[in-house]
Amino acid sequence: MGWMRGLTTLVLAFTSTAALHGVSIAAAAESTTSMSKAWISQSLPLDNERSLIVPFTIDLLQGTHPCGPATVYLSGQPLRQDAAGRGRAVLTLLPQLNATVRWTYTCVGDTPREQVLDVVVEALNGEVVPDSVVSVVFRQTAPATILEVAGDRIMSKKVKHHVGVLAVEIADEDNAAAGELTAAEKNELRGRLRELELLRAQAKELEMLIFAKETYILENFGEEMEKALHPGPPTDMPPISNHKPDKQPHVVHQSTSSQKEQPITSAKVAVASPYLTPRPFTLPQDPAAYYDLVTALAVAGIAFILFTVCGIIFMHRRMTVSLEQSRRRVNVVSGGGHRETREERLARQAIRREARRHAISEWFKTIFRRWVLGDAEKDAAQDEEQRQQQATSTPQAEEATTMEQELARFRVAATMVGDIIAAEEGRSMERAAVARASPGFTYAAEDDADSLPAYQTDEDDEDDAVVADGFRYMRPSFEFVLNNTSPEEVLSRRNDSDRLGYGK
């Protein structure tokens, strides 16, 4: 098992070997018209427990007869055949890894157009291993095409077709038909051929990326590659997609580069990054679910727009009605001729804010006082508030009493003035009715005759009344000075003092 010592360096050296083989294959392909190539990674069993994953290439060049001798290269080494279509040789698959291989060519069908190549690995570095078979179905006539690659231990496979001079072959095989093409058809053919060359360039670039990624995987995960590709029995999880792997859509790497493929001469270039191509974006596998999601989003967007429009209309109408009501209220208060100015509105709003701020501060003060003060202090605060209320109500009661007294005094004064006016009018009438006596001597009346009382007595010396013309006049300031005298007492005094001594 000495050949296993260099197993670590196999993959690193594989890239340079493949590049050298690619140079020889390219040189051989220049003399032909078409070729096809396949990249294969196969698991070669070492014993019942161990296996080795070996990558190699199969190149097919164009031949002249469908079932004639084929020109096939395995990792750049020709697979020649005898008259029976068999061959056997020791081939170098990787550096320090030689394999004893036998192969057989077989034509397919009664009118053969295709062939089958069966390659069997018998030994590795002289040690016999269980047979590992790779079957390749190909057609070598123009264009040379590898149709299928099959095998029970194939880990991965990629097939490439290359047609070099398709237009020349068409012209050589059918000159008459080609000569009948019009100028427009020739231009269309040239355009399609240019598109084909562009697709070939893109395919070359994609194959280089695939080869680089496979090389990286083999270098870093060579031992775990078989486990990853064959994870074991399926789980109970439902499948993500109903499509099989071979039916998945192929994502073409778009590129405008049409340069010829350059061979990879360094392993570092091939394994520079494991992520050489971006992960393709895929839509949900179920189209119905995708369209249901789009429909739901559309309905939600329409509902949101309608709700927003309705809200804007409602707020606009409410603001308009509120402004109209405010305008009407201002017109009613101001008599309809005054409209509130901006300064007045700002002043009113400032007063309202100040009142609101004061109310809020008082409320917070009350809450804080109730929370901080104890029961006794709360009672004291309540008593103080009651005393303030009583002190506030007492001046109001005194003010009401004073007003009543003033009204009573006004009534008394009005009555007195009315009596004076009536007395003056009566006396004037009596003077006019009584005739003037003629001048003469008069004598004093007898003592027992009735006489009028004096105009003034000793009791009238007081300054509270004046007697004149047979009437006693009260000083106007007398009753107004007596603030504590009730109206009834004032009336009784007036009735007692308006006589000329009668009833005393």
Automatic annotation (TrEMBL):
<feature type="signal peptide">
    <location>
        <begin position="1"/>
        <end position="19"/>
    </location>
</feature>
<protein>
    <submittedName>
        <fullName>Uncharacterized protein</fullName>
    </submittedName>
</protein>
<feature type="transmembrane region" description="Helical">
    <location>
        <begin position="289"/>
        <end position="315"/>
    </location>
</feature>
<feature type="compositionally biased region" description="Polar residues">
    <location>
        <begin position="253"/>
        <end position="264"/>
    </location>
</feature>
<keyword id="KW-0732">Signal</keyword>
<keyword id="KW-0472">Membrane</keyword>
<keyword id="KW-0812">Transmembrane</keyword>
<feature type="region of interest" description="Disordered">
    <location>
        <begin position="229"/>
        <end position="264"/>
    </location>
</feature>
<keyword id="KW-1133">Transmembrane helix</keyword>
<feature type="region of interest" description="Disordered">
    <location>
        <begin position="379"/>
        <end position="403"/>
    </location>
</feature>
